[in-house]
Amino acid sequence: MTGTPADFEAVLVPLLDRAYGMAYSLTHDRADAEDLVQEAALLAFKAFGQFQPGTNFKAWFYKILMNCFYGQHRKRRREGETVDLDNLPALYLYGKTADIGLHDQTQDPARALLARLDTEQIVAALEALPEEYRAACSLYFVQEFSYEEIAQTLDVPLGTVRSRIHRGRKLLQQRLWDIALELGIVKQLTTRASA
Amino acid sequence: MAGWRWPWSPRPYDCAAALRRLDDYLDRRLTPQERRLVEQHLAICTACTSKYRFETTFVSELRHKLARIDVPPRFADRIHQTLHQAGTSGELPGSSP
Q1: Do B96 and A94 count as a contact with CB atoms less than 8 A apart?
Q2: What b/e string do you get for B67-85 counting C-beta neighbours within 10 Å, with b at 16 or more?
Q3: Contact A122 B65 (CB under 8 A)
Q4: For A100, which of A1, A40, A148, B17 is 20 to 30 Å away at the CA?
């Protein structure tokens, strides 16, 4: 297929806001996020002839965006990015919020905690995940992609997506709890619970 | 007759079986039968209901907050400009090998 620039923009523009959100959740840097979407848009524009009409343009575009991210990120990948995945506790935040008495104080402890964390802090928690978990979780949380779409975008089997989402969700809970501790949110909630 | 069930009925879930399916429940990956068995267990178990509700809220709150990432002003215009420049320099869609 060889579409016109107008054809390409007609399918791209509705995705741009979410694409920026995705890029920002991956990079946690506004300039890098803009550059990433711009680079992906340009590459997709040039390769639009290879896009098969009737297939999923969104998944095709995000695949290009992820490849751009991996290309950029590899240049400055953090060394020693390891995480202990074997000892990830299930229901981490549930247990922690129960330990501080939040469940006795409110019917909705998850909302009580997350209401005190803003979007920036959640993006910081996502950004702290190892690269493969961050990619899967960004597609899951920011784009609300299905497992099938994530598998297609990341070019990995469905079972790998499932495992990355499950483990990524646990890692994210640990990181968010650490952020809540650092910001004194846990202390405030504990004080309220014991008052 | 408490505890009686048709021989061909699936065994009801206990807490361990229900919690093993929590992630798949959240992501709508359960079969209709598994989902029904989870919901039957939740109807009689407040401890598991509390855990399921917590995790459901966790996912929905995170999605809600991440949908609010501010997009820079005139971002679409900048992308349009980039594509326009590529188009005028001969890099039309489909030009890439």
Answers
A1: no
A2: eebebeeebbebbbebbee
A3: yes
A4: B17
The answer to whether B58 and A93 have CB atoms below 8 angstroms apart is: yes
Rounded Cα gap, residues A83 and B39, in angstroms: 34
Coil/strand/helix, residue B91 = coil
Residue A63 in 3-state DSSP? Answer: helix
CA–CA dist B50, A94 (Å, integer): 9
Buried b (16+ CB within 10 A) or exposed e, A118-147: ebebbbebbbbbbebbbbbbbbbbbbebbb
pLDDT tens, residue by residue, A34-84: 999 999 999 999 999 888 888 889 999 999 999 999 887 666 655 445 666
The complex's ipTM works out to 0.87
Q: Which of residues 63-92 of B touch A (CB under 8 A)?
A: 63, 65-69, 71-72, 75-76, 78-80, 82-84, 86-87, 91-92
Q: Using one digit for the tens of pLDDT, what is the confidence trace for A4-13?
A: 778 889 999 9
Which of B58, B75, B93 lies closest to A20 in CB terms? B75
Which value, to the nearest 10 degrees, does the dihedral of the CA atoms of residues A177, A181, A187, A188 take?
-70
For an interface test with A, the pick among B25, B30, B79, B89 (most A C-beta atoms closer than 10 Å) comes out as B79
Amino acid letter, A47: A
